Each structure stands twice: as structure tokens, then as C-alpha cells.
Amino acid sequence: MKDSGIAVALVFAILTFGLWAYMNRPAAEPPWPARVQGMAFSPFHADQDPAYRRLPDRTQIEADLQLLSGKVAALRIYSSLYSLAEVPQLAAHHGIKITVGAWLDTRRHSNEAEIHGAIRLAQDNDNVTHVIVGNEVLHRGDLTLAELVQHIDRVREAVQQPVSTAEPAHVWLRNPELAQHVDFVTVHLLPYWEGIGVEQANDFIAGTMRQLQAAFPDKLIVIGEVGWPSDGRTRGQAIASVSHEALFLRRFLRLARDAGYVYYLMEAFDQPWKARFEGAVGAYWGVYDVHRRPKFEFVAPIVRVQRWQLLAVISVALAALLLGQLYMHSTALRIRGRGLLAMVVYAAATAAVWIIYDYSQRYLSFGGIIIGALLILCMLAVIALLLTEAHEWAEAHWATTRRRRFTVSSVPSRHWPKVSIHVPAYNEPVPMLIETLNALAALDYPDFEVILVDNNTADEAVWRPLEAHCRLLGPRFRFFHAAPLAGFKAGALNYALRRTAADADIIAVIDSDYRVDTRWLCDLVPGFDDPKVAIVQAPQDYRDSGASLFKAMCYAEYRGFFHIGMVTRNERNAIIQHGTMTLVRRAALEQADGWAQWCITEDAELGLRLFALGHEACYLVHSYGRGLMPDSFADYRKQRFRWAYGAVQILRIHAAALFSGTRSRLTRGQRYHFIAGWLPWLADGLNLIFTLAALCWSAAMILWPNRIDPPPIMFSALPLVLFTFKLLKLAHLYTSRIGTNVRQTFAAAMAGLSLSHTIGKAVIKALFTRDEPFFRTPKHGTRHVLARAVTDARQEMLILAALLLAVLGLTHRFAIAPGLVIGLPRELKGTDVSVWIAVLLIQAVPYAAALLMSIIDALPLPAKWLGDPARPLPDLRPDP
């Protein structure tokens, strides 16, 4: 690694550690008092759930009371039945007062039992000081006001202690007559649920208390619940975290002391079972966690993450390891390129460490563990893709030199090896193929033959004129019609190989629609002077980009791979061989046993096998031939489906060689590029599954908003970061390396995005099937009408509609004012919901692009709207 690389890595390591330190700087807050007035007390442990009658036993309750003894003056319980009925008697031994609760809901028989139990506990225990009949009954809509009042009046008549019911402030203010039936007003003040940030929380509490005191001047106002969760969703400005819980409670306790409030902190211990009813946040309201450990410092300054130094060291070490590997194999990078890699690597490592740590601190059910594992795997896949994108960006723009640049060096007096040009064809338009053959006849090369193999064309009217034209062009041109012939294009190429002239040393392959430049062979054949070289490759290029706006957009998208991706791959002898404009050493081709007929991308597969045998390839960026692009969006998708399906076929069959290097001579760089190069396509397959899962998750959020939370915000943010990063990379490289204008760059992005769904389907199908038929890209097709274009994109249109409906549903569901509709969250749209909606909108972009591309294909729109096709800029430029 160069000294500049070490310096860049060190700078970003210091910045990363400094960021951890800044985010975890200590905050001095009022100390916790020796004893608090009251706490809500639900003594359930991790494996217990009152809904299933899995309750704490007497020993567990006693242990909890022993822990709280001397730390709290009073406890509030929510039920008077089963083992909770033992709390007053046990608490008396520790000098703790009890406020008994009777839990009321829609179950009439249960309500009667609760009322009788509360009366009995109040009558039998001297340390029972208050009774609360019902908890947020009116807010939930379980009982009417008249029904609740009847229960309250019954209890007041039966006990000596003051009696109340507990509701949020807006319920009391909306039902002032309720106060006439209670001895004191019990209000729940939970700023988190209102979306209020921790800095404004005390102001909210003080303001609400003044409002209640003004509305009920003759009643004592008791804060029945006041607290902050240590984990869960972000609601508006309210962030659920351990540090914010500590900040809120320590500040509130100072406020309560100064203002003389009567309160019960929400709550003593975390209650994981509540997550089923309140979402994940319901589990995290305790001062102590479910294992009875304090969650934050009571006196010392508050730090966001107690063990942040260890996490910082892990993130820096992980980033340094990854960055060292990238620098070691990218020695020709300028400082700017190294800086880009360092920024992305350190940010990704820090995000990964933080996300895994944060998720590990949660209470996870078996289902939560499975979902978490899947989310973390998706996160790692996104990070891997982000790193490969950054690596290509840096190498494409900030390389100081090209180690394997192939330059034209024709020598007129040299010995020219014989070249056999193979042209496979199936049911192709006769005029187009005659143009291809005429261009080959005009080649400025001394010794070559052309073998045209027409495989399986049934109509003699198609192939007979080609046979006649080959005879007309002379003995260099040989025509074969083979039917039946298995193996699609690979079968035709193997057929031609067996009929190749014995003295031919080089095999050249072009597609049937290509017009080649006269200098093609003269300029590329000298590449075989190096005996290690088995492949010399020129780019695929196209001559019909001016035919329509649709084709101009496709042309812009194609060029990125051939003028950016292939250039960086060539540096590590890892180009993707493509089945046109390619030259192959015959001996190497025969050593590899010819073209693979099991693979529908036989060209890329052959290139990989030749690399595995120790051969080399070289790539020349200059274009020497131009063919025809797909005539419709449907054909454009089918072509990309074949490429993606074939890529996964190759990955499956050659997995051992690619992932472990077993029994092959593939270098690390070659394995990296073949895996990293196809990683975006694999990501499209994963993204299709993610999209369907996101729709299901969103539907669950809409149906059960109190129970189903959006994914953690850090998981949701990563796809947004990746999408933005890829767009920035594309915009920068297309303008700086290819010379496109803004319209062409936008067109390339849209065309690429429009294929995401198709690629995703191909990847998933290739994982579970083996034999996908070879699809030949039609030439000179007819333009589809608009209705047909929309029909062709029906899958994308349906998913687009589903995503937009999910966005509308979530926006409506989580934008309702707090407390107005029973059963809805008491908050405005929160940050995590907003981020999740943004994720859904980003997911919708490729589907919208597909529909738009299909419509553009059907309309007679001119290519000139994008401007003249850009000419690629020189491969290397000085750093400005």
C-alpha cells in the first residue's frame, strides 16, 4: 500500500473514532433521587404473558419488591387477579404503598372479577392507598362513559380509599363530567406518544398539567404514567433510546420535585409481552430491563452508548481490513479515488457495527431473530454492493494508469495468421444478413474465411438466398444449413468450429446483424502475438440509435458497461467475453472443449473457462462493428432476461472455481470481478423478494398500526443510500468518461432501472430451474401500439400500483391527528414511517421506469430529443 493510502486510511480512522466520541459525549443531568414517589409495577419476566395466563409466581414478585425496596415509595398495579393479588401483602413487608388497579375491557365477566378483586384488596390491606378503576378504557373504546362511571361509583361506595380512573389528558378534557365521579384525576403524560422531542418534553408536561389544573381546580391531578421508551419507533421528534429515556426521566424527576407533582414512573421493568399489542416500543418502558438490570446511569453523566469505545475500535478495524484489501489491489488510484473508497468503507463499517449492536440489544422472539437475521443479511448484501460500486467508480475515474491497455500496432509486413469468422443465424432478415456478409467481404485482411451457419430455419425462402450470396462472394465464404441442430447459438458455433479450415489459428465471431469495420482483424489480431492471450475483444456497438427515442435511450444504457465496466475489468484480466466482435485463439477454444451448449450465455461462460485454464484476454475500447438493438421494449427485456439467467447458470456451475478457486487458475481479481460484476443482478433478484415482502409488511402496518412497526430506520435508510450513491456514480462517470449530456445520462438511468424487475425474475428463476430456452433478439420488428405496450408492462404496472397504494395507505393511516380515532397510534407521521414511505417510493421507481419505457417504445418519438450520441472520452485524463 502506498504511503498516500496509509495516510488516507489513518485520516478516516481518526474521523470515524471522533464521530463515535462526538455522538457519545457525556451529558450531565440532574441526579436520580434516593427514592422516587411511585412506579408502575408489572412483575412479568421474559417468558411470561398475562394474555396466556403465564404469570409471575410469589417468589419472583418478592424478588422484584426486594429490588425496589428503599428506591420507591409506592407502586401501581394494573390488575387485582391471580398472582398480582399477592402484591399488596408482599409489598407491606418492604414498606411500599400500593395503588390497586382493576383492569377493564370488553369482557364483562372479567370486569366483574376485577372489580370484586380490587375491592377485596383495598379492604384487606392497609398499604393500599388508592384504587384506579380501568386503564385508558375510554381511549380504547372498550366501555362507554356511562358503563365506566357505574363501575367507578360501585367501587367508591365499597372502599375507603380515594378512587379514580386513568386516561390520557385529551380524554379528561373531552369528558369533564367524568371528574365528578372520581376523587382525583389520574392522567397519563407520555410525550413520546405525542411525537414530542426529549428537549421539549418537560414543557409539554408542565403545560398539560396547567391545563388540567385549570379544568379541574378542585381535584388532585396525579400523573399515573410518565416515562420514555429505550427502544422502538421514532415518532415525530421523539426518539426511543436508552440515552433519551435517561435524559427524560432525570429531568422530569427534577421538574416533579420543583412543581410538587404526584407521579408514577412508567415503569419499573421492561415488558416484552407488550410488543404484541403496542409494537416493539411497548417492551421498553422500564427503568430496569427484563433481566432486572438498570438501563442507564442514575447519577453519572449520561452517555448514548456505554461501550462506544469498543464499537468504535471494531468499526475502525473492520474498515481498515476491508480498505487494505481494496488498496492492495488498486495501487494505481489517485488520492481522490482512495478518499472515496475510504469514505464509503468507513461509513459502511460503522453503520454495520451500529446496526448489529443496536439490534442485538432488543428483546427478540424466535420470529424476531429470523426477521433480524434476514434484515442483517440484506444489509450486508447492500453494503457489499455499495463497496463494489464505489470500487468501480474510483478505478474508472481516478486511476493514474492502465496496466493492461491494448493498443493497435499493425505491421504491414508481419505474418498474418488465418482467421475463421463464424456467423450463426436463425431465421434472420435476408437483406440484413447480406449487408453483414458484404461488410466481411470488404475486410482489409490477407487471410480469412467466413462460415455462415443457418440453424433450424424452416423456410427455404429465407436461407436459400443467403446460400446463393455466399457462392457469389467467392470461396472464402461457406454456407451451411443445419436442421435439426441442438444447442441454439452455441450449437451453431460448435458446428462451425468442426468445419473450420485446418490452417485457421484464430476464430472470430460476430452476430448476424453486425457491419464490421474494414480494419477489424488487422487491428485486433496482433493481440495474439502474446502467447498467453486467448481472447481479443472489441465492444458491442449499435448503428440504429437514431431510429427512435426508445433506441437512443437503450444505446445510452448499453454504453456504460462497454466504456466503464469492461475497462476496469480488463485491468485484472477479467473481461466478460461477449458473443460478437470477439476473437478467440483456436487452440485455446479446443482446449476448453468448445462452446457450452447448456448455457444460454455461452460467450461469457467460455471466457470464464479460458481464464480458469490460465489464459488471458485483452480488450480494446474502440468500436469495430455495429449491430442492431432490440426493436421493442419487450425484446429489450427478453435479451436482458437471457443475460441475467445465463449469469446465474454460470455462477451455479462454476461456484467452486469462483468462490474458492478450487481446481482452477482463476486469480483473486478475476473471481472478484465475476462475482462483483453480477452482484447487481443478484441484488435485483433479492430486491424483487424485498419488494413483495415490503408490500406485505406495509399492508400489516396499515391493518394493525399499533402492533406492526416499520423496519428499523437504519435498515430502511440503507437502500436509500445505495440508490442515491448509484445515481451519483452513474451521473459522474457517464458525463466524465463517456461525455454524455444530462438528458442522455437520465435516459441511461431510466433504461437500466426499467430492467430491474426482469433481471430479478431471471435471477430467481435461474436459482430453481436449469433449462431456459435461448431467446434470439428479433431484428426489424414492428412497433407495438400503445395498448400493447401497456400490456407488455402489466407485471411492472401491477407492482407499481400496489406500491403507490401502500404509500397512500400509510400516509393516510399515520397522518391522523392523535387521539381522534380509537385504535390508531397517538402521533403524527413519524420519521421511521416517513423513511419507510421513501423506501417504497424508491422501490416504485424501476416499475415506473419500465412502464414509461414501454410507452416511449410505442410512441413515434425522435431520438434527437437526447442530442447526438456522445463519443467516449480518452480512457485516462489528468486529475484536475
User: What portion of residues is helical?
Assistant: 40-55%
Which strand order do you get reading across the main beta sheet? Answer: 1-2-3-4-5-6-7-8
Largest sheet data: 8 strands, parallel
Shape estimate: elongated
Radius of gyration: 36 Å
Number of strands: 17
Intertermini distance: 23 Å
Q: How large is the count of helical segments?
A: 29
How would you explain this protein's 3D organization?
This protein has 880 residues and is of the alpha/beta class. The protein has 4 domains: 3-21 and 306-397, no CATH class; 35-283, Glycosidases (TIM Barrel), CATH 3.20.20.80; 422-632, Spore Coat Polysaccharide Biosynthesis Protein SpsA, Chain A (Alpha-Beta Complex); 680-866, no CATH class. The chain has 29 helices and 17 strands. The strands form 3 sheets. An 8-stranded parallel β-sheet has the order 1-2-3-4-5-6-7-8. β1 (36-40), α2 and β2 form a beta-alpha-beta unit. α23 (668-703) packs across α26. The protein is elongated. The protein starts with a helix and ends in a 22-residue tail after the last helix. The model is unreliable at 816-829 and 876-880 (pLDDT under 50).
